[in-house]
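Data deposition worksheet. Section B asks for the primary sequence of the deposited chain exactly as it was used as input, without tags or linkers unless they were present during the calculation. Section C holds the resulting structure in token form. Section D is free text for depositor observations; keep each observation to a single sentence. Incomplete worksheets are returned to the depositor.
Section A, Depositor: J.P.
Section B:
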Amino acid sequence: MAAGGAVLAVLAIGIASSACAEGITWQVTRQTHLTRFHELRLGRLDPRFMRTARKRPEAELADDVRAANQYTPGEKTMRAEILVAFAAGFAAVLGVLLWAFGSSATRRVLAMCGAHPADDTAREAQCMLEALAVRADTSIPNLYVMESELAEIFSLGLTPDHSSIAVTRGLLDLLDERELEAILAHELSHIAHHDTMPATVVTWYKMLIRRPKLPAPSAVARATEHADLELLADADAVRLTGDPEGLRRALRKLPQDRLAGRLQTLIEAW
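Section C:
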């Protein structure tokens, strides 16, 4: 899905840049093209040309219009330079807008859930997340804590470099060290594979249209889930931690309506 979005963005930038380059080049060279067209029309009045076999007036006019509108090598070079300049500008603006939107969407969802940056009470989880990120050779996400007794965790962010993991106090109290490591590795897999990008946009939109009451952490967790992606993240978590038993134990402690067959799949696979 991330790759599809990138392709669409590149296509949009290409179309917009081409349109702008064509329009500006035509405006700059319009007078030259008109002069060329007049010269061609006057040339057909030359007596030497009049004695040669001629086409119908409509065909001659069409030929002159086509010839006059042809770009010279210098004009083609100018159009290419304008296209490159606009493409670079559009790409820069799009990058800034995506960064601003991604940061804003992530912050808003976290704020609406009452999440705050992890403090010393979640120091163990923070150290564990940093170690997992180093082991997976990926950026270290920001860790947030929600003061809720529910056992929930989810990840958000448009890119791995600007992502966050939010976990409830209830989950931190419920899981032991092995189980917590497995669940954090699971969320880290979502971030590394860009699963969080569409989830962030969709979740932010759903929260926006369902305000004003604050959403429960469980509602956000379910909004960011997809069955196939959850299974892939489970497999990645096992590979990263080397501890399938830790993940099995963690899944048994999660709300049963979130498992969707994942526990049985994990038991059969490992």
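Section D:
The first helix runs from residue 2 to 43.
The CA atoms of residues 253 and 267 lie 15 Å apart.
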